[in-house]
Every structure is written in C-alpha cells, then in structure tokens.
Amino acid sequence: MATGIAFFVALLLWSTFRLGYALSLNYYEQTCPDAEFIISKAVKEAFMNDKTVPAAILRMHFHDCFIRGCDASVLLDTDGGGKVEKSGFPNLSLHAFYVIDNAKKAVEAACPGVVSCADVLALAARDAVVLAGGPTWDVPKGRQDGRTSVASETLQLPAPTFNLSQLQQSFAQRGLNLGDLVALSGGHTLGVSHCSSFQNRLYNFDATHDTDPSMNPAFAASLKKVCPAHNNAQNGGVNMDPSPTSFDNTYYKLIVQRKCLLSSDQALLTAPSTKSLVYKFATSKEAFYEAFIKSMIKMSSLTGGQEVRKNCRKVN
Ligand code: HEM
Ligand SMILES: *[C@@H]1O[C@H](CO)[C@@H](O)[C@H](O)[C@H]1NC(C)=O
Ligand SMILES: *[C@@H]1O[C@H](CO)[C@@H](O)[C@H](O)[C@H]1NC(C)=O
C-alpha cells in the first residue's frame, strides 16, 4: 500500500516536473524549421531603423515572464474581458510591439498556427541581445500562449524603489535566486528610464536625507537638472548607461561608482553575495555573459498558457 502511494506521488511529481520543463531546443525542427531565422530577420529589420528596439523587446520579455509565466499575456490588446497588462502601471517604456507583430506575421506565412507568440517573444529577446552586441545562446522552445491578461497584475512586477529583500522575494516567487537577480538586472545595460522611476532618490529621500546618500553626489546633481522637482512631465528618458544601445558590462561599473539610476540597481551592493557578483561582472564581461545566459534561460522557462495564438494581440 505504502509503496503504491509512494509510486503515485513519484508519478505525480514526475509529470509536474515534465510539464514545467516541456521546452526543447528542437521543438520546431519538424513543424517550422525556419522559424528562428524568420524571426531574427524581422527583429533585425526593425533594429536597422531603430536602435532602441533591443531594449524594448528585452524588457517586454521580462515583463511577460514575470506575470503568469512567459505566455505572451503582455502582448494582448484584449482578452475579451477588462483592461489588459498593456494598460497597467508600470508600462511606460513598453513599446515596439509592432516588431513582434511583424515577426509573427512572417512566421505565420511560413507555418500557420504553429509558433506561439510567447516563443516569438523569447526568441526575439535573444536576437535583441545579439543585435546589441551581446552574447548568443540556444533558446528552448515550446511555450504556449495564455488567454488572460489583467492590468492590475502588472503591480506584481518588482518596483524600482524595492530594496534587496523585496527584490529577492519577487524573484524567489518565480524560482529565481540572488545570482539570477544580479545577472538579469544586467538588462539595464540597455535603454532608458524616465525620471519618475528614480525621482524617489533625488528629492525627499527620507527623514534625514533629501538625496539618496548611496548615490554619487555629482551624479545626483546632474540628474536633478534633467529631472526637476515637482515636474512630473515625462521627458524622453535618461540613459541607463552611457552606451544604452550596447549590451556590455558598463551597468555593473556604474553600480560600483554609485552612478546607476534605480534604487533597485544600487540595492545590489547591499549584501555581500550580490555585491561580490556586481564586482565580478564589472571586471569581467565574459563572466557577466555566462551568468546572464544561464539566468535568461531560467527566466524564459517560466511557462504558462494553453494555445498557439494566431494574432499576438488577441486570444483565439
Ligand atoms: C530587478 C528588478 C527590475 C526592476 C525593478 C526594473 C525596473 C525598470 C524600470 C523602472 C525601468 C525604466 C522604466 C521607465 O522609466 O520607463 C526599466 C527599464 C528596463 N528594464 Fe528593468 N527592471 C528590473 C529587471 C529587469 C530585467 C530582469 C530585465 C531584462 C533582463 C530588464 C530590462 C529592462 C530594459 C531593457 C529596460 C529599458 C527599456 C527601454 O529603454 O525601452 N529589467 N526597468
Ligand atoms: C499605461 O498605464 C497608465 C496608467 O494605468 C494608463 O493611463 C496608460 O494609458 C497606459 N499606457 C499605455 C500605452 O497603455
Ligand atoms: C525592505 O523594505 C521592506 C518594506 O518597506 C522593509 O520591511 C524591510 O525592512 C526593508 N529591508 C531592508 C533590509 O531594509
């Protein structure tokens, strides 16, 4: 009897484990062998006209994976119900959705109804990193698209004001550890941030400091010029690092110099284990790349969903 139960439990665990890890590198080998090439081509075409495309696509994939798993819920304009993730806060810099539309259209023309929008986005995120001069890797595939997107669920994303324990908790809820947090935060080598995302560090920081004391004072002064107090008008955004279209390890050097934008970036120095990783990645681009690839594969394997959408903007 006990053996029977143990066997049943083992079977249950095994099938759950399998469902969670159903992705594979050769998933489209028979059904759509050119899928990756077709998607890369579409992302590259967009990149040729707009060098900010990689930042947009990488962040889009992160937002997708952190809410309901990587199920393309972030791409929906409607799920037939209420407001979708796109209209939730924080959505400011989510843009370039047309890139995914173009890639999906091209891949539908070659193999209709086969490649999920979640896979298109995961592959496009890898392509984005490569186009920005970063490393390449093989992306496991076989994700399914979800049928639900809820605006208020974007509040489950980590906030830029989070301290390390809050960040750790947010990542742990998705099976990601502190090493993954440090490596994936390296995505902030690309793109821009709006003043509202780091205003907390510049004015009325806490009871004893007007400005965040963990920020380099000269850097804080320069940011205050671009982001005046009591001015919530959105500017064009401040570059995350001086090379916002190049995927390198500058981001980590800036954390060490206390010249990064977000509290959540600077927070990576507040525990010995994350601090030592920041220093490691600041001195070795190769070490950063290796860790980033591992953590990206982990994050992009958080699956959800149950169909292959025909149009990434609406459920079938
Ligand atoms: C650790 C928790 C994270 C927080 C709190 C966070 C927060 C933010 C914020 C506030 C912005 C600026 C939004 C704006 O003001 O417009 C931003 C931008 C960005 N984030 Fe993150 N992020 C996190 C993790 C990640 C991860 C894991 C990735 C990808 C691997 C990523 C990729 C990006 C990119 C590429 C941009 C620039 C987007 C653009 O210029 O279009 N972030 N993030
Ligand atoms: C972003 O969210 C805000 C606040 O919920 C909303 O007013 C705005 O329309 C959204 N932006 C987009 C592009 O959907
Ligand atoms: C992080 O923030 C939370 C929520 O504000 C707080 O309870 C916690 O004490 C903070 N942790 C540290 C280490 O500052």
From TrEMBL:
This is Peroxidase. Disulfide bonds join 32-111, 65-70, 117-312, 195-227. Binds 1 heme b (iron(II)-protoporphyrin IX) group per subunit. Pfam families: peroxidase. CDD domains: secretory_peroxidase. The active site is at residue 63. Heme b binds at residue 188. SUPFAM superfamilies: Heme-dependent peroxidases. Its EC number is 1.11.1.7. Ca(2+) 1 binds at residues 64, 69, 71, 73, 85. It is an enzyme of class 1 (oxidoreductase). Keywords: Calcium, Disulfide bond, Glycoprotein, Heme, Hydrogen peroxide, Iron, Metal-binding, Oxidoreductase, Peroxidase, Secreted, Signal. The record marks 59 as: Transition state stabilizer. The keyword Secreted applies. It catalyses: 2 a phenolic donor + H2O2 = 2 a phenolic radical donor + 2 H2O. Residues 22-316 form the Plant heme peroxidase family profile domain. InterPro entries: Haem_peroxidase (IPR002016), Haem_peroxidase_sf (IPR010255), Peroxidase_pln (IPR000823), Peroxidases_heam-ligand_BS (IPR019793), Secretory_peroxidase (IPR033905). Belongs to the peroxidase family. Classical plant (class III) peroxidase subfamily. Belongs to the peroxidase family. Ascorbate peroxidase subfamily. Removal of H(2)O(2), oxidation of toxic reductants, biosynthesis and degradation of lignin, suberization, auxin catabolism, response to environmental stresses such as wounding, pathogen attack and oxidative stress. These functions might be dependent on each isozyme/isoform in each plant tissue. Substrate binds at residue 158. Its cofactor is heme b; Ca(2+). Coiled coil: none annotated. One of its GO terms (molecular function) is metal ion binding. Residues 1-22 form the signal peptide.
